[in-house]
Amino acid sequence: MVAMATLLKLLLLLVLSTFAALSVSSQQFQTQVELPIVVSTWAFVDAVRAAAQHVIKDGGSAVDAIVRGCSTCELLQCDGSVGYGGSPDEGGETTLDAMIMDGTTMNVGAVGALRSVKGAIDAARLVMDHTEHTLLVGSQASTFAVSLGLPGPANLSTDDSLQAWSSWKNGGCQPNFWREVVPDSTSACGPYQVSSLLSGRNDDGVVGDGVSKKLKSSSDKNIGYGNHDTISMAVIDNKGRIAAGTSTNGASHKIPGRVGDGAIAGASAYADDDVGACGATGDGDVMMRFLPCYQAVESMRQGMTPAEAAKDAIDRIRRKFPTFIGAVFAIDKYGIHAGACHGWVFQYTVQDANMADAVVFTVKPDIF
């Protein structure tokens, strides 16, 4: 009876894998993998399909597939967290971060706080292909991208993003990312200054004379569903070449000039042909301090499975920041993949040469 039950489960898995965008739990079973393969954070099915079309059906390269997949998400404004028209900063402007890494050459191109150019992943590719640099930022990055042929300048705001910004302003500019500052006397939204009374802080960090009641808090940074922060994607092509990349408009209401983990190799994504790749999403300001994707790939290099490496990368952050929200997926060079998360339920999407369409895997946290 046990053998028959196992056989029935395998048959059911075979049937279900032919349906588009099927949601399954990666903690229950792993499908048979056949390269090439595309993996992406979240249920960004259209982005995975676009990358898979290029790398699986057309036989294209892993690097080109990353650009194809991430640019699809930019165009579709996936979850409002990728591309133009999302996550306005404190001034109401949408800026973009993106990164691409070639796991064969270990070359990286990235842009941060990109303004007035919609094609963030294309701009990152230009940095990788046509400069000796790794990261360009701000208006200078935009000028660079336009000089090499990307359309611009472009307005990255939309009616929706401006309405979100207006609502935030009318709500007293909360939540925000400031701490241990007080606004001036004319507006609860700043400009801010460090209180002169902060020097009276005691050993527990408590400020006297009631100043602590005025201090802005970043305890609620609106990192969660609806603000996933990024698409992070990894691809292995039919020659075994591995690439990874990200694209994001960052965190809503960020302080202007902020660059998050989406532009940082090893934080939001990492790739090495010798080992595998990783993608990350979540509270980038915390996660980038730990380089979780670099950690996951190095853990696999030392013999951990993708599941063990992903969990270890998340646990390292959780031990120091127990309330952070984030997730990673890890994939080895053979295409075996797994995910781990903390503070939310995480999904990642996969399509390999065996699959008729993209499949969404669901990962639950060990501890909320």
TrEMBL record:
Regions crossing the membrane: none
Top-rank EC class of the record's enzyme: hydrolase
Signal peptide from the UniProt entry: 1-26
GO molecular function: beta-aspartyl-peptidase activity; N4-(beta-N-acetylglucosaminyl)-L-asparaginase activity
GO biological process, one term: proteolysis
Chain positions recorded as substrate binding sites: 258-261, 281-284
Complex formation: Heterotetramer of two alpha and two beta chains arranged as a dimer of alpha/beta heterodimers.
Protein's recorded name: beta-aspartyl-peptidase
Record organism: Ceratodon purpureus (Fire moss)
